[in-house]
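Technical note accompanying the year-one report. For the benefit of new consortium partners, we illustrate the data format agreed upon in the data management plan: each record pairs a sequence with a structure-token string. No post-processing was applied to the example shown here.
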Amino acid sequence: MSIKIAVIQAKDKKSKEANLEYTIQKIAEAANSGAKIICTQELFTGDYFCRTQSDEAFKNAELIPGPSTKALQEAAKENGIVLIGSLFEEALPGLYYNTSVIIDADGSYLGKYRKNHIPQDPYFEEKFYFAPGDTGYPIWDTKFGKIGVIICWDQWYPESVRSLAIKGAEIVLVPTAIGWLPEEKDELGKSQHHAWKQVQLGHAVANACYYAAVNRVGIEEPIEFWGQSFIADFYGQTISEASVENEEIIYADCDLDALKKHRQMWPFYRDRRVDTYQDLLKRHV
């Protein structure tokens, strides 16, 4: 069985309503092009507000399920697609998460994944806003395959994708918001992007899965989001990649039968020495 997936790389439209409307349009466009699983970028309904610490930003948080979830459910049902949408969740006043919702092709809400690894750097002030996730690493057996979701900073940690893979995830989708700072780009920009892509391609190889990272694009001062969303196969080969600057939908066909055969012939799961990994449960040894 071959499944076409798509990711939507976009710029902030300056309001929740405009961002949601644009994304719903692009979901329909991707579905009309044959995509069966579609994923948004991180926190797609607004700007990347974590550039600063401001209590004003909390007013944009919403319940899950809530209005944006409902709109995505309607889009999923209307287009007959599985949908992953990244939202700013208010669990209760004073408790917020960076959360992705997973919706099946009949519009049913399957559940949520809350970002586990929360960064704290200049202009990436996420610890001010988000509690670490408490959902673990669930997978969802959707109409079009078994999928797992992680979010941005999670992508640097091999344990996150491995946790999804050993539960059976065939496709891992990764809403992301990452870019260059002006004072770093000339010296480190190329190396930073190389590291970002290579670590994720390694996840696809080591876990024998399809892997899709979807980034924001455009300048939100002072960050220049570097776009370059990509989809890779289980050999770590880039199947599809977006540009640095443009809003785009990229697509890839995921052959799940070929994936199963690959896992049989490259038996990473058989040969794992789980009895030797105890130290991984410690912060240091």
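Partners are asked to follow this layout when depositing records. The mean pLDDT is 97.
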